[in-house]
Amino acid sequence: MTNVNITNFRKDIYELLEQTIKYNEPLHISTKNGNAIVLSEEDYNNLIETLYVSSIPELKKDVVEGLKEDIKDCVDEDEVKW
To answer: Could you tell me the strand order of the sheet in which 27-31 lies?
Structure first.
């Protein structure tokens, strides 16, 4: 995570935001009144999706069980009918 104070953030805002977007690296901004975290939209959406999946007990259970499966026992992606 990149750390920057508010003064340097204001000075380099374009470059810092481009870096956050390009590398999905959160940006920690410190101020006298508190701190903030800037995330790329992709990271934000992934976080929201993870929270959503975790909020559905049965789905969360299925995901956890699926993580225990050996990859060689899984169906190939090309065989899945969407």
So the answer is: 2-5, 27-31, 34-38
